[in-house]
Amino acid sequence: FELAEQIPLPREAVALRAEEKPEQCTISVAPGKLAEVKKAVLEDFVIDEHAVDLILSTLVYACKNILLIGKPGTGKTSIARFIAEKLGFEPVIVTANAHWSRLDVIGGPMFTSRGGVTWRPGILVEALTRHVRAKKEGRSGAWLIIDEINRADVDKAFGEFFTVFSGPEPREWVIPRRLFDEWESYAGSED
Asked: Over the stretch 143-171, which tens digit does the pLDDT of each residue have?
């Protein structure tokens, strides 16, 4: 990450650095693994073979996000979870809703059961933390899978997310200082 004013990321997310990113974005997959994953997907799900090829090549070689579109109950989330697990990633699955805001996606201040206020990480920060932890443990990482993303108010829920992650490469990501100031202002708050 390139951080505004070189502010360190809190908690375990500090481990992600642009210099750790290879020049060409690819996920390390053993020879034959993609063919094995493709075969398993085709055995377990009713899905077009070319769609599986597109999904796998986009995820593994282009390192791009995938948006699966289809009728409810057709297995989109199950396929996403299955592929993540087969490639050695921890699936972090959340379901969006119309009430989502920046607090749900990025994080923010929340009241505690004892009447205090603490900073609670949102799903994105949680997924990043789990990814870094998995990498440190020698696993592939974690993938965030958002089910029913169409239910969320995109501007309200993802506006700040799009600002932070406006570029495709981690070295282009800039986390605003105000987000760290907010996070740090709650450090040590009661839970």
From this structure: 999 999 999 998 888 887 777 777 666 66
Structure tokens at 29: 């997959």
Contacts of 152 by beta carbon, 8 Å cutoff, 6+ apart: 96, 97, 98, 100, 158
Q: How far apart are CA 117 and CA 88, in angstroms?
A: 37
**Is 65 in a helix, a strand, or coil?**
coil
- Determine the Cα angle at 123 with ends 122 and 124, to 5°: 95
Residue type (1 letter), 123: I
pLDDT in tens, 3-35: 333 333 333 333 333 334 444 566 788 778 999
The residues, ordered by sequence, that sit 6+ positions from 185 with a Cβ below 8 Å of its Cβ are 119
Distance from C-alpha of 41 to C-alpha of 83, rounded to nearest angstrom:
7
- In the structure encoding, which two tokens stand for residue 189, read together? 């708050």
Q: What is the pTM of this model?
A: 0.75
Those residues with Cβ within 8 angstroms of residue 79's Cβ, 6 or more apart along the chain or in another chain: 41, 45, 47, 55, 68
For tokens 């740090």, the residue is 184
